[in-house]
Amino acid sequence: MTLLGELNSIKRIASMEDIEFFDICEKEQTAATPFLEQEKDDDDSVTDQFWNVANQPNGKGHKIGEESEEENKIRSKDASEGVGEDSDSSGEIQERHMNNGNNNNNKTMKYADRVQMLNLRRNLNQLDNIAKEKDLTIEKAREELSACQLRIEMLTKERECTETKIEEEKEAGNTAAIFRLQAMHRRLCAELGNEKDLESKIALMLKENVYEMWQIEIEQGKFGSLRELLEQDEEELERQCKERAEQRIQKEKTAAQLAERKQQVGKKKEMEAWEAYERRHQKVVEDAHRNHEKAVQFLKKSMSRIRQKEAKEELKTQEHMEKRMQAVLSLKNNITSNRETLRTLQVRDKAKALEAKKQEMKMRGAILAEGGNVTKEIFLHKQRVELERQKQEFTEQQKSRKIEIVARILQEEACVEKQKKHQARAEALRSQGKLPDSLQWRIKTWQYIENAYEDPAGAVLQKSWCTPSACSLVDDKSSSVVDFSEKALQDTIHENDDEEANETLVEPEFTGLWSQECNLYKMPKDETDPKPLGASKMERKIFTENLEKLRSGIIRKQVVSGHEFKGCPFYSKPSLIHFKDFDVGKTYKKKIILINASYSVNFCKLVGVSEHLKDFINIHFDPPGQMSAGMSCEVVVTFKPMINEVLEGKVTFLAQNGSFSIPLKCTIKRCVLALDKELIDFGTHVVGETISRTIILTNRGALGTRFKLQTSAGDNGTCTTAKSSLERMVSPALDGITSEEKASSSPVESSLYENKEQVSPVHTEEVRQTYMLGESQKTENNLGSSHVEQLSQDALITKADLEAENAQSPAEPPPEEEPIEITLGKVTEGEIGPFSSIKLQVIFTPSVPGDVHAEFEITFDNPNCKPLHFSVIGVSVDVPVWVPNPNVDLKICMYDRLYQDCIIIRSRAKAALRLKFEVCKELSNHMELLPKTGYIQAQSSFSVQLKFLPSRQEGTEEGPSQQGHIFSAMKAPLQGPPQPTQQELLRENFPMTVHTVRAHLIEMYTSNTSQRTVTRMHSLPEDAGKYFDTETRVLEVPMTIMIADKTKPIEFIVHAIVTTSDLEISPAEVNFGYCTIYEAVQTTITLTNKSILPQEFGFVGLPEFVDIQPSDGFGTLLPLESLNLDIIFKANKAKEYSFELTCKSEINRQFKLSCKAVGVHPPLELSHSLVKFAATALNDVSTATLYVINAHVSLNRFTHAVPRIGKGEIAPVGPTSFEFLVPEDSPVTIMPSVGTVLPGKKCLIQVYFRPVLSEQLIREEAVQMLCREDAQRTMLKKIHESEMQKRKDETVAGKKDGKKPSFAAFRQPLRVRSSKHAAASSGFEPPKPEEIKTNSEEYIAAQYSLIRNFTGKFERYIIPCFVASGDIDEKIGSENLKYSPYNTLYLELHCPAVAPSVVVTSNNGKNIVNFGEVAVGHRIIKRITIQNISQEQLALGFSILNPNGPFLLVSPVGTLEPGENQFLFISFCPNESKLFFETLDIRSIKATLTLSIIGHGVAPSIACSVEGEVLDMGYVIAKEKVTSTFKIQNTSTLPLRYSIKLESLSQTRDKEQQRLPFFITSPPGRTDFVGTQNYSGLSVFNIFPVEGVIEPGKSQDFTVTFSPDHESLYYSDCLKVVLFGKEIAREIWLKGAARNHMMFVEGGDPLDVPLESLARTSPMSEEAAKGELEEPAKSLLLSLEYIQAETSGTPAVRELKIGAIRTAQFASKKNVEFSLDSLPVLQQKGFTIEPVKGTVDRGQIKCISVSWVPPADFDPDHPLMAAAVLTLKGDIKESYKVLFIARVVCT
Q1: Cα–Cα distance between 1158 and 1081 in angstroms, integer?
Q2: Residue 164: which H helix or E strand, with range?
Q3: Is pLDDT above 70 for 1291?
Q4: Is residue 1246 predicted with pLDDT exceeding 90?
Q5: Which residues 6+ apart lie within 8 Å of 1629 measured at CB?
Q6: Rg of the chain over CA atoms, in angstroms?
Q7: Burial of 151 from C-beta contacts in 10 A (0-12 / 13-18 / 19+)
Q8: What are phi and psi of 982, to 5 degrees?
Q9: Which of 1390, 1478, 1492, 1427 shows the shortest CA–CA distance to 1182?
Q10: Residue pair 651/577 in contact by the 8 Å Cβ criterion
Q11: Is the pLDDT of residue 1601 over 80?
Q12: How would you write 826-849 as a 3-class SS string?
């Protein structure tokens, strides 16, 4: 009912809000309709947001199970009351929603409707959530109800079962079981009742929840129609949202189209503006060019004069240089004479000094004779001489200053006069009025000359004005010329003052142009500058000094962290401000970035630009203020050129620590012209062809120019030499082929695809065949030129095109002249623009056989561009038939192999020709051309096959029996180009090969052919004769082609290198000897290739017991190479072996190798014959396990293999012994090394590998280290000696100068002298390695050094194991067992040793951690430093120490970085007195480091001089001190660290005081040793020393001081001797008493507690103390017990001690008197007291003995009591009332 009530309340609130909101919205909508329409788009977005919120589930859940039943009941009542109201409100909302829904079909949904819809969706979602939660609650309640009912059934069954058992037990009479079952029955009844109550509650709750669920379902049913309407509204809203989105998209598309149109219009306008700007700019440039041409015409004559003037200046410069050389020579002579003069002056000065010394000695003698003060008189004399010298110097200085001042005054007057003259001339010129146009042109022309041809050295000093361009001169006519004329006149005036400017080289264009008078403009007085134009030297000097002072204040050093910044404080990006290719009149801007490169904050200030750039460069720079290091700022540089010149300068800035500048450069447009080649080589061509080539002219500059191509002077491009066609063809063939030419032929093949030839119809077929053979044949023309033109640039042009070009070509010669073979194409002149290129055509038309050479020149209109030259060469021939490849190279060929190639023959003739092919007679049996005769068609090609079969007359080999079979197979022509074989591909990779040869290898041998012996009738080396070189094996054969009706034959040469195909095996026979079946025997053979070609080989048909390595016997042999092959033989049984190995080459030749061996089967075998140890670190151990097996149990050789040697006797069956022979000094150990194995058994063998450094190696390293140390000492000694000698020299020089050497200068040499003496006395001689002891420091240091520098070592050991039949233990005496060496087994060990990855760096690198002697129970921690000396990170692991042992690894290390040191802390805490030993393994991936840990536990023991447990300090006067001493001796063998502690100063003292005192609790013994303490808080007892160490067998004295501050008899404390801060070795009870008076009484039974309050009682006044010297009586109890025996009794005896304290106080009383009264009464009662009275001296104690014997009338049942008064007289009088209590005790 709780949820339903909550639901109703939510609905009521929501419905009221909806109604109110709806009414408000309707009122506002009528008043604000226009505004709502404007905000429609905004409302859509708000609706989307509400829609998203509405679709989200409600985040606030209802907690169902946590509410109590009472709250559920109360909420259910509220829900039932609100059902009616909810239904009414929902009806109203439904009607209103239906009305709104009808309206929404016609128009867009309103904002209020959307909000209402969202609220309704939220309410419906809440209702659905409540229904789901209520459904879940009902399900849970039903599950609980079913579970409760199940428990009730179980309890009912248990109860019935229990009742049944009770009845059974009652019948059985088992009372105990009945009681137990009855208790169980009661418990079950109680549980059953509880479950039934719970069932009723759950049922009631379930009923209520079901009722609430019904109500919720009713409510959902009421809202069903409303839900449907809501869904319709939501769909409608979604549809409207989509429509609005589509509308927005359409609007955006329209807007985008409009924007695109606007952009197009803007671009169009921009393009139009740019075109207009370009037109204007082009017009301005053209005007400038025209004006420039006009100005250049005026300057031609002036330039010639200027050059003459420069020549004169050059002569002057040479004369000046000669003068300087003369001056240098004279200076050298002067220096020589000055040196001599200086020596003379030095001698003179020495003589004067000696004379002055003599005068001084005379003066001393005179003064001493007169009896005056020598020192004073000499000092005064020296002062007078110095004063006169200073006066003379001052006078001379004053004279020189006067001269300087007069010179400056005269110079300033001359400057003033000169300035006045300048001003007068300027006024005279200005007073004549305005200048005419002719004078203006003259002045401007002169200015342009100055700017154009000014000396570069004076560029910095030029004026700040700029020369206007030619186009601006015209516009300046309408403007004022006042400023311009003033500057020009000032320049003219300055030039008139200069002597060199008197000659004017400028002349007018026409005579009399400048002769007319001109009225100069007169400058008004207001415009004249009253100040002089330049300052005087003094003013400039003052200005410079002031500027330096200012800069010294501004600029200061920058020092950060002790480092001074030096260098440029700011870096600029870019480092150079470069305006390239500028146009006059345009404005250029560049932005640079300044970066603070200093160490800290800096400033930056713009100083300016170079003086001559101020009119063109403008800097925009906003100072950024303080800039941190690394920060940057921007500077904008604006350049507006007014003259077309190259400008260079810099922009200067000032920083906090100095100025810096950025270079600035402005370059004009230039022409940069170049040709792609300087030589065109047409190659060899036939007379009548036409070939064209192109050369490219490139302009890389920004300025265009006109060019003209023409032949050089005196060159007509005619034929220079003439050769016959045969000579021109054969000569290239006979030339050597260099590697560069061969390499350069590769691009020709690729360039054929880019051929741009124009082929004439006559030569079409020829060119096609040339292209087909381009990949296989490379034509090489050796014409002597270094530049070879590629074939891709060749071009054959048709005759019609050639005639047309020749008709139009301007370079065509007249008909009557000699024909020109090299001509130019159509383009010979024209305009080349900026950054462009032009192709120029050159045509070669050979007409006369011979060589042709021509030179061409390209000239340019731009005078700054130098002419370019290139050469053209070509060769023309007249042979009708030629071989394109006159040099046929067959490369390397083998004997008895067939090779063939295709030879192409070309024809230039216009008719068919008959050809005959001939081979020289010497090689007719080895070489053949097919066909022998043929016809070649007009202007076509013909193919001939060349077949080459070299043979030699050497022995026999396998193959066909007749040579004629080969040539019969050669009759058929080849179809297409042959493919290269694998052998030819190998040749291509071999360095001796050059090109791919079109030779085809025909296999002469086929498979399955019988061996035939053929006798060779012809041998190539013998037949070839002069054509074959036997040393180089090179064959050169001339071949001839005869042409019908022609006398001159065509020759070409066939080249080949002929080699053999033999392989040689060395040795020819191999004997492996005896080999056991458990091992493999290896031998090495050498296989040699006798050929100069690489050959593949392979050993085929190998038996199963033979293996050949490497590569299983297959491989490739390079020419003349020898290869070592390992033949491995492994016998599979005991027998004799004889076999052959066959090696085949790739051409199927076979080579045999004979082998022999004897197989041995030993009686024993090893389970492993090869042991590979892991990489073991130094001092580490690796272990391997194997077995020796005796498998020989039977002599039957038919059932299994029996042990024997070859075919010898069988070994007997029985025990067989073995012995391993391990080499001495090897790191290998075999256990056991000797043993016997019974038949069918095996013996375990363990092999240990422990790599160590040999002692000899360590000793040698120690000697070397000692030698190195001695060398270092010797070097230091030499350094010290040189320093000492240097100091001595300085000391001697100081004495000569009269200076006393300082004491510090002598201090160090003394030390050096002593070390030098020690080194000299030692006389080091390196010891011998045998003298180095193993426990010395040198040995340890050398071992540590070797370990750290150990690079690893691999050792291979072969351990023989001898086998003998019989038992080794049963041999008689020294008799040895018989054995055969052939039965020996071999164990191979691979032992790699590496450097340890982890080493111990502490304790001199020792791996032993020795704690020494440690007290039992005491813990000591030692630190071990380990270091990773490897190059990689190591993860460490540690072995486990004995958990019950005394050693503990405190801080294990996880990882170690390379080179890192880490600490290991190991603690030792012995629990008993004995010696302990353990090992700790530090494991890593590579190795294990073992640490040996040793420690000895010792029990500490001491002896104390205090007898017993109490140290009584006695009585002392309050506020006085008394001391006592005791001794503690160390009786153990280790030093003892002790500390003394008092119980009163214990930290737990406050806790112990909270307990009850011992006199209340009455413990068996007193445990509280701390008694009365001082009122001042200071300790009563003080001990010294408090802590320290007692060495073994030594003792320590301790002093105890007792100093009480008030009277008490119960001062006490406990002293504890603590060893090592833990163990309490001894406890001593300290006690003492203090009195205010000098006497005391001690004894009797205690009547008070031994504690007192710390509250101080008020002391008596002085008057009371004086008046009452007698204190009140004190009580003493003395109890006596008489022991009654059967026969007699023992008297009871007690004592009272009376003492006098030794003190310096109370000087009036020297002793204490005492007396005891009531003596008769005591005697009657049986008491006897002696003495009754007496005196006690200071520091003494007397005893009063009291004895008691019971009197006769004593009643044993009642104790006897008596009293007496004891009186003491000292400084005061004291009385004690002594109570005697006596009783009789029976034993």
Answers
A1: 11
A2: helix 111-172
A3: yes
A4: yes
A5: 1509, 1510, 1511, 1569, 1612, 1613, 1614, 1615
A6: 65
A7: middle
A8: -65, -35
A9: 1390
A10: yes
A11: yes
A12: CCCEEEECCCEEEEEEEEECCCCC
1703 phi/psi in degrees, rounded to 5: -150, 160
Contact of 1242 with 1189, CB cutoff 8 Å: yes
- Please give the Cα distance from 929 to 944 (Å, whole number): 7
Report yes or no: 568 and 597 within 8 Å, Cβ to Cβ.
Answer: yes
Identify the pLDDT of residue 804.
Answer: 40
Please check whether residue 665 is in contact with residue 574, taking contact to mean a CB–CB distance below 8 angstroms.
no
**Crossing angle for the helix pair 437-452 and 482-497, to the nearest 10 degrees:** 60
Distance CA 1510, CA 646 (A): 115
Query: Helix or strand or coil: residue 757?
Result: coil
User: Among 899, 947, 944, which residue's Cα sits nearest to residue 925?
Assistant: 947
Which residues are CB-neighbours of 584 under 8 A, at least 6 positions away? Answer: 288, 469, 641, 642, 643, 644
Residue predicted with more confidence, 779 or 613 = 613
| Whole-number pLDDT of residue 303 | 86
Residues 6+ apart with CB under 8 A from 185: 159, 162, 163, 166
Residues 1581-1602 as b/e (b if ≥16 CB within 10 A, e otherwise) read: bebeeeeeebeeeeebebebeb
DSSP β-bridge partners for residue 1128? 1082, 1107
* Burial class of 845 by CB neighbour count within 10 A (0 to 12, 13 to 18, 19+): buried
3-state secondary structure of 31: helix
Rounded average pLDDT over 392-402: 89
Beta bridge partners of 619: 637
pLDDT in tens, 1188-1234: 999 888 888 888 888 888 888 888 888 999 999 999 888 999 999 89
pLDDT of residue 637: 93
Evaluate if residue 1324 carries a pLDDT over 60: yes
CA count, 13 A, side-chain hemisphere, 1104 = 2
- State the CB neighbour count (10 A cutoff) for residue 1740: 13
For residue 1026, what is the DSSP state? G
Q: What is the pTM of this model?
A: 0.39
Cβ 963 vs Cβ 951: under 8 Å: yes
In terms of pLDDT, which residue wins out, 1129 or 1565? 1129
Q: Which residues pair with 1158 in a beta bridge?
A: 1074, 1136
Q: Which of 1778, 1751, 1779 is nearest to 1682 (CA)?
A: 1751
Question: In this predicted model, what pLDDT tens digit does every residue of 308-357 receive, in sequence order?
Answer: 889 999 999 999 988 888 888 888 888 988 888 888 889 988 898 898 88
Model confidence at 295: pLDDT above 60: yes
pLDDT the model gives residue 664: 92
In the sheet where 1595-1602 sits, what is the strand order? Answer: 1502-1504, 1522-1530, 1595-1602, 1581-1584
Q: Is residue 908 classed as helix, strand or coil in its secondary structure?
A: coil
Total residues found in the chain within this entry: 1787
Separation of alpha carbons 715 and 871, rounded Å: 11
Backbone torsions φ then ψ of 1119, nearest 5 degrees: -55, 130
Q: Bridge partners of 708?
A: 829, 859
Backbone angles phi, psi at 352, to 5 degrees: -65, -40
Contacts of 947 (CB under 8 A, 6+ apart): 898, 899, 900, 927, 928, 929, 930, 967, 970
Average pLDDT estimate for 275-289:
91
Number of H helices and E strands in the chain, helices first, is: 28, 79
Q: 1426-1474 pLDDT, tens per residue?
A: 888 888 888 888 988 888 889 998 888 888 888 888 898 999 999 888 8
Q: By the 8 A CB rule, do 944 and 929 touch?
A: yes
**How much is the average pLDDT of 154-181?**
89
Query: Poorest-confidence range of 24-38, 698-712, 1022-1036, 1738-1752?
Result: 24-38
Pick from 1478, 1467, 1479: nearest CA to 1414: 1467
